[in-house]
Design a protein that fits this description.
The complex is a heterotrimer of chains A (about 350), B (about 850) and C (about 170). Chain A is α+β, with helices and mostly antiparallel strands and about 350 residues long. Helices cover about 30% and strands about 20% of the residues of chain A. Chain A contains 13 helices and 12 strands. Chain A has helices at about 15-25, 40-45, 80, 85-90, 90-100, 105, 110-115, 130-135, 165-170, 270-275, 280-295, 305-325, 330-335, and strands spanning about 10, 30, 50-55, 65, 70-75, 175, 180-185, 205-210, 220-225, 235-245, 250-260, 265. Chain A is globular. In chain A, about 60% of the residues are buried. In chain B, the strands form 8 sheets. Chain B has an 8-stranded mixed sheet with strand order 30-8-13-14-15-7-32-33, with helices on both faces. In chain B, strands 3-5-1-12-9-10-11 form a 7-stranded mixed sheet, sandwiched between helices. In chain B, strands 16-24-25-28 form a 4-stranded mixed sheet, sandwiched between helices. By secondary structure, chain B is of the alpha+beta class. The longest helix of chain B is centred in the middle third of the chain and has 28 residues, at about 525-555. In chain B, helix 11 packs parallel to helix 19 and helix 16 (about 525-555) packs across helix 17 (about 580-590). Chain C folds into 2 domains: about 5-80, Beta-grasp domain (Ubiquitin-like (UB roll), Roll); about 90-165, DNA polymerase, domain 1. Helix content of chain C is about 35%, strand content about 15%. Chain C is built from 5 helices and 5 strands; from the N terminus they run ββαβββαααα. Chain C has a 5-stranded mixed sheet, with helices on both faces. In chain C, helix 2 (about 90-100) packs across helix 5 (about 145-170). Chain C is globular. The termini of chain C are far apart. Classes of the chains: A alpha+beta (about 350), B alpha+beta (about 850), C alpha+beta (about 170). At the B-C interface, helix 1, helix 3 and helix 18 of B face helix 2, helix 3, helix 4 and helix 5 of C. The complex binds flavin-adenine dinucleotide, iron/sulfur cluster and FE2/S2 (inorganic) cluster (FES) (2 copies). The site of iron/sulfur cluster (SF4) has 14 residues of chain A, from loops. One FE2/S2 (inorganic) cluster sits at the interface of chains C and B.
Amino acid sequence: MMRLPPFRYIAPTSVSEAAKILKEEGPCAMLVAGGTDLLANMKRGQQTPEILISLSNIKSLHDVSNSSGLTLGAGLTLGSLLENDSIRDSHTGLWQAAGVVATPLLRNTATIGGNICLDTRCSYYNQNEDWRKAINNCLKKDGDTCWVATTSKTCRAVSSTDTAPALISLGARVRLVSADAERIVEMKDLYQDDGANYLQRHSNEVLTEVILEPLVGWRSTYWKLRRRGSFDFPILSVAAAVQTDGGGTIEDARIVLGAVSSLPLLSTEATEFLVGKKLDDDVIEETGHIMAKLAKPRGNTDLTPIWRKKMVPSFVNHALRELRGDDVRELRKRIAHQARG
Amino acid sequence: MSHREYSSDTFRIIGKPRVRIDALSKVTGQTLFADDISLPRMLHCKLLRSSLPHALIETVDVSRASAHPGVQLVLTGEDFPVEYGILPVSQDERPLCRDKVRFVGDPVAAVIACDEQTACEALSLIDVSYQPLPTIATVAEALQATEAPLQNYAEEHNIHRRLAYSFGDVDEALAQADHVFEDTFLYEGNTHMAMEQHASVAATDPDGRVTLWSSTQCPHYVHRALAKALEMPAAHIRVIACPNGGGFGGKTDPFNHEIVVTKASMLLGRPVKICLTRQEVFYCHRGRHQVTMKFRTGVNNDGKLTGMHLQTLLDGGAYGSYGIASTFYTTALQPVTYQLPRYSWEACRVFTNKPPSGPKRGHGTPQPRFGQEVQLDKIAEKLQIDPAKLRLGMIAPANSLTCNFLKVGTIGLAECIDRVVSRSGWKDKHKKLPRGRGVGLACGAYMSGAGTAIYWNKMPHSGVQIKLDRSGAVTVYCGATDVGQGSDDVLVSLVTEVLGIETIDVKCVTGDTDLTPVDLGSYSSRVTLMMGNAAIEAAERARDLIASAVAEKLEIAVDHIGFAERLVFDVEDPNRNMTFQQAVICAEEKHGTMATTGSYAPPKSAARFPGGGVGPSPTYSYTAAVAEVEVDEASGVVEVTRIYIAHDIGRSLNPVQVEGQVIGGVYMGVGEALMEESGSRRLPPKLSDALVHDNPSMLEYKTLTMHDMPEVCVDIIENPDPNGPFGAKEVGQGPLLPIMPAIANAIFDAVGVRVDEVPITPVKVLKALEMQAAGHDARVGPKAFPNIEWPQAMFVLPPWEGGDGKASNRPERKRAAKMHTMDKVKGASEQT
Amino acid sequence: MSGSKKVQLHLNVNNEDMHVLVESSKTLLEVLREDLTLTGTKHGCELGECGACTVLKDGKPVLSCLLLALECEDAQIETIEGLADKDQLHPLQLAFAQHGGLQCGYCTPGMLMTAKALLENEARPTRAQIREALSGNLCRCTGYQQVIESVEEAAITIEETENSAAGVKS
Ligand SMILES: Cc1cc2nc3c(=O)[nH]c(=O)nc-3n(C[C@H](O)[C@H](O)[C@H](O)COP(=O)(O)OP(=O)(O)OC[C@H]3O[C@@H](n4cnc5c(N)ncnc54)[C@H](O)[C@@H]3O)c2cc1C
Ligand code: SF4
Ligand code: FES
Ligand code: FES
């Protein structure tokens, strides 16, 4: 049986208490929400906190409010997010992304906060301790070579969160609270291009909520590429959101690629290209090419990087056609193994 | 003899859909799997596994680990001087490596401690110093000269074994054919990934006897290996096979951990348990060999085969395991599916620094089945013959001999083909669906039990005992092991049927070497047939004992005594009867204490050439399948939308179970066709010598989820075979065989590309589509078969050319087989 | 010996209150199987990759291998051992037994618990809903088809029993 190494467990009941412990204990303490990422990583020795600060007793983190816009507590499970029909209608892309995370069982404990902060992944890293020892470890943990890009000085582990691209496409922001300060950060600025140090979040901060402004005239969608209809992390994802006027002309757009880099990739070029246009076939085609240029998949996930890169234009196509109103349900089921939505 | 009439009309139990006898204990969570066992004072064991793919062990220092609080014992290779292995010809394993490690994951030391976590901690305190050796990652490397072969008994370089046989003059047959097709295929290795991780618990009694509970499919072989490796009389060792949480061949070898905990328990006088992690299960492996194969097949314009030449190359991984048998199986069963006038083959297994391959569902057969069925599709295409019709024209007559002297019994293949063709609407679909959608057809045949044991002996392959007494209770004992296939249910239902009682009246004790007569184990689809025949024999003997007593008591002729509904009665006047319990009391009065036995050994094979022991079976099952697919041309993603399958089972003993086995086989076949693959990863050689398992987890080793499983339409063809119990044949492995090629053929029908490789990933399909778009040969697959120096083929004349099943000289060519080759082949026949 | 401090934990398992002293690093899976001897709950990976360890926590199916036992303080846990009501099997258990919903039975406890939660939310699920709900439970034996059929049969039985019970009342 894979077991957890010993650690000290603390379950504060308020954010300020949690932030205080984080500050006092320093980097040897980590927050645990659903634990579906962290506990598995700890069993494999990828992450080795001495203290776990559980967020599950902090009631305020489970709140959802949609008075003006939408505010999601970081402790909201993906399962309960999916039960919320108004999110399905107003923030379709987020709802779809949440619905294809892992498995239904994992989604019942997995939280949105944990999903946003999900550790980056790599097939040289997400392995047992003895396996990693057999390759002499790697840059991200205990080693000095990146096996995916041997000349690289930075880790290229893959941002594999499903909800982050969707949230970025919806213009989400997050609230980060530490013992001494509090700040709100745009989701698009939360990540950085370093697989070992992928978050702009300071290690003493608690991510308390996700803030979404009211969305008027926006439609959004999420397409995930993976081998199977369940379990699998994305090996490419496309989150697309467009705001159109009554006549279908695009006023604003955000297209984000997930799982083809160490951070979700929001394309400003695509936004500039799309604004003022309608989603006709040529525009959609061209957007696909713009997005493909951005993708930097590497050989550390399932299937091959070349193939994953080739999939970008067609996935962007599917997503934009869906936003245009085409019926792509069959395709979604067949290609993206995505039944919902 | 009592009155006997077995037919579908009179069966009360057989052939009726029924709740299997172990179902309720499984749905309530009461079934105890090996890891569910917990004994007083039990300790826990963990193994330290090699982090190098190939290295000499210089020193193992366990002093720090031994001193760790909570640690009771640390064992190393020094504690295990004797080698073992499943086949007598490859005794190349040690419970813990002594001089050398051969793959990342090879066990080097064991810690036994108060709990698992403590044992894990102590593992990191063991200091091993290694001297690295060059590593072999691929079959191509294994064929090359090396200074440090993995195994010192390799024939040459890292070649484990080369075999060559010729059944008739194939060159001549190909020369005379209207067409000769030459195709090369690759079938990647894959693994069983049973849901249950292997676990074992050993306990020693103060008299020095030891008991091992284990998740094993073959308690008898574990028993033998323990006796050998621990240098102990087998009579003092008891092996109990727990219900297996799935096996699929992955629990048929005796494993390191089983021997280690047994030894540890004896040294400590306390129970010791081990449960492997999932990663360790991937290291134990013994899964499907990667096979490269080349077919040269002669065909006439009418679609009749004239002969076939097959070459196979197997990646064996680091140890022998069942490898020699696997090697034979990549060739031996080819002539069973379709009639083949002449057949020659060459097969080679090599060692590489990877977890050892062995038997997985279909053992060695799915790979060449894939090759031949795809090649037949190409032949049908070229000759403009419907693929179903082509195959229908190649079916052998029932009760005939194949060119390699396998005796086939009933053959329901034509009916299977007809059934899937009509049910799938084949004629309206094949070549007629819009681009992107397609159908493909393939067939297969499989043994109902290997005709020869793993080690040469003249004893029964399966034994059954029945004990009955005045309580009316019947207990049936057999060494067979339920791995989920439902063998306990088969055992009980056969005895129940013969004795005319209810399944609840029959208790069953299986897989316990102290209590049960030997059965060789749950492999090669042998249990239903072999155990079943032994069970019927034992039950009929019991029935005769009872009948004679009742006949005397009620003054009825013994051949008028019938058994049904818990009554023993006069078949002419059923009102003259007594209850089953009363009848047993009568019998106990008359005969004294009662127990009966039954045993089964397969009929003698017609093959009398060395190596002819692999392939014979009392009877063979047949299967045909049609796969329906949709291919997305932008991505190469293949969706299997439906599988139509018909399986010739002889007789269906419990239709619910039979259907379940068929669907389960289809499931695994679809997985193998599309995604299952156990790979290895070598790091950039300039920077690292590492060679590791590519995907040792359930997340990375892709298997179908409920979302990915197509709908399956099952037809069961019943055509009782006289060699099967009440006519039954196997169903556990055969239904998997046609699935992979049927899917490959359907992809061709859909988009006109050939992926001559398994698994057929979207990457490969897209590549083939791109080649097609560029006007190239739209095929992805191996370009050539490697050059191998083959031994002189053993020549056997097919029956229809006057052959008698013995090896002979090739007519008019008069090339004498080299003596050393013959010796080796003889060695092989002994173990198979 | 491993050093985690032991902590007192209160759980309600299958309607029984349980107080156990557990190491804080233990998962619910380990506590159920090792401290409470409820070995009916299985494990195939302990990393969230198979679904064999599924139990219900406050009515929701969750993976006990990735759930700290301490996170279950005061929770209602249901395991396979509590699925039958004394000697009355749950309709799902009967349906799995009758329709080939199990072979080796190793994935079965997890499947059954997941299916139970599904039927409590969705009395007559469609095939698509069943596939989705059970898509986190791997099975290597059955090929899933008979599992799906078993769930459908159980749903019918439950509905019929409820209808006839309602009929008696009215
Ligand atoms: C088999 C399997 C398949 C999976 N498939 C997918 C998938 O397809 N897509 C996907 O996106 N994920 C997948 N996951 C990963 C994981 O289940 C989800 O990402 C989940 O949402 C993580 O949430 P959690 O609450 O369990 O996170 P935890 O494990 O509790 O935490 C994850 C990380 O976030 C940090 N963290 C958590 N909450 C906060 C907070 N409020 N503030 C600051 N830091 C915080 C933790 O310290 C930790 O580093 C999979 C996991 C498994 C085991
Ligand atoms: S990308 Fe490189 S450094 Fe990062 S986890 Fe993978 S191998 Fe290690
Ligand atoms: S044991 Fe595999 S998911 Fe929990
Ligand atoms: S019944 Fe064996 S794994 Fe599902």
